[in-house]
Structure formats: structure tokens, C-alpha cells
Design goal:
Blueprint: E1 9-10, E2 16-23, H1 25-34, E3 47-49, H2 53-60, E4 70-77, H3 78-86, E5 88-90, H4 101-110, E6 113-121, E7 127-137, H5 140-149, E8 150-155, H6 157-168, H7 172-178, E9 183-184
Parallel strand pairs: 5-6
Antiparallel strand pairs: 1-9, 2-4, 3-7, 4-8, 6-7
Helix pairs in contact: 3-5, 6-7
Length: 207
């Protein structure tokens, strides 16, 4: 069965969804230790979360890029994740989805969250035909994320490096067996139609 171009896939339970972020150890280590982000973590900037483990590996270079050496699996409430989607705007203007460019710009200014679809990655971090969700949080969404939605934070840097080592050794079957089980995620009430633009491509974003 052909994979739809845009569909949310995530490690999830009936109550939670796991998203990934990568930080310098000064942020990532205390976050995993304490189960919350430290005071040095900025609430003023947009923070991007990714339900795709392999897209996170692509973004952080298997935890090797500067200031992205600590990979976090952040378990958040499904209610929070769904709230973020309901209040999101696409990160790029899409003809046929938005009435006009000005309307999209206005929506983007007021929306606390942004949705972006980027090519999913395989174990070699090569792009796949279908796309993976990125969710940008700002303003009210950042506050809710940090103070209300987080259920737990795990440091999965060792896992990332173990999988990478197996990939480099050509042991892809063993590497695949260690990947988080990312299943199709059904949004409560359905994914808002304006977030699935047929031309919504999007570029790379900051973590």
C-alpha cells in the first residue's frame, strides 16, 4: 500500500505522543535529569519538535552537530499535541489552501504553532517520497509545552549513536529493530484540512 504524502507518524500511547529535540549538553542533560527544561532554555524563541526519530537524526547528524549533541525524547500529552495542531498555520503560503498571501501572513502572525512537512528519512538519512511533520511552537504554545504538556523527558543520545554505529557497519536490520515504533497518529477530530496543502513543502528549520 502506497504511503500517503503527508501523514503524522509517531511513537504514541493512548495518553501521550513522543517528539524529539536536540540540544547542547548544557540544556539537554539537565532537562532529561529533571524532567523539565532548565532556566537557560529560551521561551522567547520558536522551538521545533519532531515526531520522527530519523528526521531528528537527519537534523542533528546523529547527535554530532554542534549544540545538538544531546537528543531528547519528550513525551507530551495527546491533548497538548492536538491543541498545537488545532491552533497551527502552515509555515509556507500555499495556493488553494490560503485565500491569499496577505491572509496567510496574518494567520502566521497570530498562530502560536506552525506546521511544516519535510521529506521523511530512511536509515541512511536519504529523503523518502512521503513527508514528516515538524511542529513549531511559539508564545502561548511554548509556555503550554514547557509547563503543562510534558509528561517525561528521556536522553536517547546513546540509542541514536548505537543505531548509527549499526548503520555504518552495514547491519541495517539490527539498526531498524532499535528504532522507535512510529505508528500512524490519528488526531482527535481529524487533522485540520488547511494543514495538508498539496504543495506544502517547507525548508529546514531551527531545532
Amino acid at each position: 500500500m502506497e504511503e500517503p504524502a503527508r501523514r503524522i507518524r509517531a511513537l504514541h500511547t493512548p495518553a501521550t505522543v513522543t517528539v524529539y529535540q536536540a540540544y547542547a549538553p548544557a540544556i539537554g542533560v539537565p532537562a532529561a535529569r529533571d524532567g523539565r527544561f532548565p532556566a537557560a532554555w529560551s521561551r522567547a524563541r520558536m522551538t521545533w519538535v519532531k515526531p520522527s526519530f530519523l528526521w531528528m537524526m537527519y537534523r542533528c547528524g546523529w547527535a554530532a552537530k554542534p549544540d545538538q549533541e544531546t537528543v531528547l525524547a519528550v513525551e507530551i500529552s495527546r491533548s497538548g499535541f492536538d491543541w498545537a495542531l488545532r491552533h497551527a498555520c502552515l509555515s509556507q503560503y500555499v495556493v488553494g489552501v490560503h485565500a491569499d498571501h496577505g491572509t496567510w501572513r496574518q494567520q502566521l502572525r497570530v498562530a502560536p504553532t506552525r506546521v511544516q512537512w519535510d521529506p521523511e528519512r530512511d536509515l541512511g538519512l536519504r529523503p523518502l517520497p512521503h513527508r514528516s511533520l515538524q511542529l513549531g511552537l511559539s508564545g502561548e504554545a511554548v509556555r503550554r509545552y514547557a509547563d503543562e504538556w510534558i509528561v517525561g523527558i528521556r536522553d536517547v543520545t546513546t540509542l541514536a549513536r548505537e543505531i548509527h554505529g549499526l548503520v555504518r557497519a552495514g547491519r541495517t536490520g539490527e539498526a531498524a529493530a532499535l528504532l522507535p515504533e512510529e505508528r500512524v497518529y490519528q488526531v482527535a477530530g481529524g487533522l485540520p484540512g488547511q494543514l495538508v496543502g498539496r504543495e506544502a513543502v517547507g525548508g529546514q528549520c531551527e531545532p
